[in-house]
Amino acid sequence: MKKIVAALASAMLVTTVFAQTAAPATETGKAQAKANSEMSEAQATANKKKAEAQGDAAKAQASANEDKASAQADADKKAAKVAKATTPSEASDARGDAAKAQTKANKKKHDAQAKADKKKHEAAKDADVAQAKADKEKVEAQSDANKTAADAKVDAAKK
């Protein structure tokens, strides 16, 4: 009879120990799963913002390229008038107009490219900020998971 009671007591002790250690492990696992989910969400958000920023930069460059092509086309039209001139006076006037148009086109091209470069810089900065925020959120999520795991270990040690 004593052996049966001892065996039952031993079995109950083992069950209690497993119950105490299983709970913290489950809690730790849940915390880590939550942290992993939060980290994935943070990275996905950062990736989305980076893609949007890159798209904005690409649009700005495309717009700049159109502006530059349009400005050069206007200058080329003025330059073509030089060849159509029939008198030296008309040719001289046409050359002056062509030079002014080319100067104006160069300024427009420069301004358009500067605007595109600024947009690209802003987009890169936005992407960097988004990634930094994601990295911060990842660290915070992992820290929370580590704290939960440490708390679970303390609770298990107390029991």
Automatic annotation (TrEMBL):
<feature type="signal peptide">
    <location>
        <begin position="1"/>
        <end position="19"/>
    </location>
</feature>
<feature type="compositionally biased region" description="Low complexity">
    <location>
        <begin position="54"/>
        <end position="64"/>
    </location>
</feature>
<feature type="compositionally biased region" description="Basic and acidic residues">
    <location>
        <begin position="150"/>
        <end position="159"/>
    </location>
</feature>
<keyword id="KW-0732">Signal</keyword>
<feature type="compositionally biased region" description="Polar residues">
    <location>
        <begin position="34"/>
        <end position="46"/>
    </location>
</feature>
<protein>
    <recommendedName>
        <fullName>Colicin import membrane protein</fullName>
    </recommendedName>
</protein>
<feature type="compositionally biased region" description="Basic and acidic residues">
    <location>
        <begin position="111"/>
        <end position="141"/>
    </location>
</feature>
<feature type="compositionally biased region" description="Basic and acidic residues">
    <location>
        <begin position="65"/>
        <end position="79"/>
    </location>
</feature>
<feature type="region of interest" description="Disordered">
    <location>
        <begin position="24"/>
        <end position="159"/>
    </location>
</feature>
